[in-house]
UniProtKB/TrEMBL annotation:
Keywords: Sigma factor, Transcription, Transcription regulation. It comes from Micromonospora viridifaciens. Signal peptide: none annotated. Residues 122-173 form the RNA polymerase sigma factor 70 region 4 type domain. Coiled coil: none annotated. PANTHER family: RNA POLYMERASE ECF-TYPE SIGMA FACTO (PTHR43133), RNA POLYMERASE SIGMA-70 FACTOR ECF SUBFAMILY (PTHR43133:SF46). One of its GO terms (biological process) is DNA-templated transcription initiation. This is RNA polymerase sigma-70 factor, ECF subfamily. GO terms for molecular function: DNA binding; sigma factor activity.
Length: 178
């Protein structure tokens, strides 16, 4: 199993091969856990998202078409789980004196905190005013350094939408800073 590539492992997982799933998990869980923890400081939540992601892989491996990179497909599943969790936390009614679930579930990553010190106050304010959809595209293409195609896979969007949102984000930032 170790010599099989991720596509082959996914094909076997789609047929219910538990050993292939174990090999796929062992190969991909470490980097995925690290990436989830960068996006979400709550380690328990990051671990839960990791398990949900691989449960989805087990269930959906047969639907993987093989177009694009497996890591992009895997990250797109995890990113959607994280976004769904954040959205649910924001809609959930809050009780008096309860901690803000959205803040616990979604906190700045280490890179974001490091970068925040490098931004001047105006840029930081302009970035905060961007819609979450536009910020997500900037995060993927600028901070994560993904190509438009990779960002589209990760965010679960068409490439044209990623390009349009990136252009809108840059235009809004330019207007806010001028």
């Amino acid at each position: 199993m170790v010599e099989a590539d991720d596509r082959e492992l996914l094909r076997l997982v789609g047929k219910g091969d538990r050993r292939a799933f174990d090999a796929f998990y062992a190969r991909n869980a470490p980097w995925l856990a690290l990436r989830l923890r960068r996006r979400c400081r709550d380690e328990e939540l990051a671990d839960e998202l990791l398990q949900e992601t691989f449960l989805t892989v087990w269930r959906a491996a047969g639907s993987y078409r093989g177009d694009g990179e497996v890591v992009g497909w895997l990250w797109s599943i995890a990113a959607r789980r994280l976004i769904d969790t954040v959205r649910r936390a924001r809609v959930r009614p809050q009780t008096v004196d309860a901690p803000d679930d959205a803040q616990l579930a979604w906190s700045p990553s280490a890179e974001e905190e490091a970068m925040a010190g490098a931004y001047d106050a105006r840029l930081e304010q302009a970035l905060r005013r961007l819609s979450p959809e536009l910020r997500a595209v900037l995060q993927a293409t600028v901070l994560d350094g993904l190509t438009v195609r990779e960002a589209a896979l990760v965010l679960g969007l068409p490439e044209g939408t990623v390009k349009t949102r990136a252009m809108r984000a840059r235009r809004e930032l330019r207007a806010a800073l001028s």
